[in-house]
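User: I've been trying to design a sequence by hand for this structure and keep getting stuck. Would you show me what you'd pick, starting by listing the structure so we're on the same page?

Assistant: Good idea, let's start from the same input. This is the structure you sent:
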């Protein structure tokens, strides 16, 4: 019985001390988390930036294309195609670069570039053969449309994936620490030394 009262006092003191230190550590970690979250990519910026980078040049390309058809200018026509193709190839990957997925952004940009180039090649092939024999070659046109749709689908995937990645990064940074007390004792003598705080990530 004489060991029970000192043990209870030591246990209470150790618990209060550990709790105080643990709460202080948790408060400091919360401040660090807030600072870290402020420096992480924003999901809104990961979406708006690529959208503007893609849609603004494509809007200019659409105006240039309309002007080329209105004035019959082949130079303006090809300029509009190059501008639209470049915007679709590179613009959506800006979000991947922003959130730190550089390799993914480069791969998707390269994939869209290849698909757009293939679509232009197949369309030119169809138009060339149609001009030579006067018939419509649906195979070449279908291949061109298919490549263009794949490029658009890959662009949409980039525009969706980058904001989701930014949101996931912020969510993981907000994870709480769990603090649990545990008994510390000397295995040789069997004497209880006190309590220690266990912090689990």
């Amino acid at each position: 019985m004489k060991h029970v009262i000192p043990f209870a006092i030591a246990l209470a003191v150790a618990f209060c001390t550990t709790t105080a230190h643990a709460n202080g550590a948790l408060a400091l970690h919360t401040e660090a988390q807030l600072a870290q979250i402020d420096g992480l990519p924003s999901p809104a910026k990961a979406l708006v930036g690529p959208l503007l980078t893609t849609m603004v040049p494509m809007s200019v390309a659409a105006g240039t294309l309309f002007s080329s058809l209105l004035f019959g200018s082949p130079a303006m026509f090809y300029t509009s195609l190059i501008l639209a193709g470049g915007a679709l190839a590179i613009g959506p990957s800006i979000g991947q670069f922003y959130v730190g997925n550089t390799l993914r952004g480069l791969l998707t940009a390269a994939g869209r570039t290849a698909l757009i180039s293939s679509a232009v090649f197949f369309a030119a092939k169809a138009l060339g053969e149609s001009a030579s024999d006067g018939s419509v070659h649906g195979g070449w046109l279908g291949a061109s449309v298919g490549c263009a749709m794949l490029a658009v689908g890959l662009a949409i995937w980039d525009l969706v994936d980058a904001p989701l990645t930014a949101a996931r990064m912020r969510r993981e940074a907000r994870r709480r620490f769990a603090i649990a007390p545990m008994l510390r004792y000397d295995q040789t003598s069997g004497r209880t030394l006190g309590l220690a705080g266990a912090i689990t990530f």
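That's my pick for every position. To get oriented when you compare it with your attempt: Residues 13-29, 176-180 have pLDDT under 50 and may be disordered. Residues 138-173 form the longest helix (36 residues).
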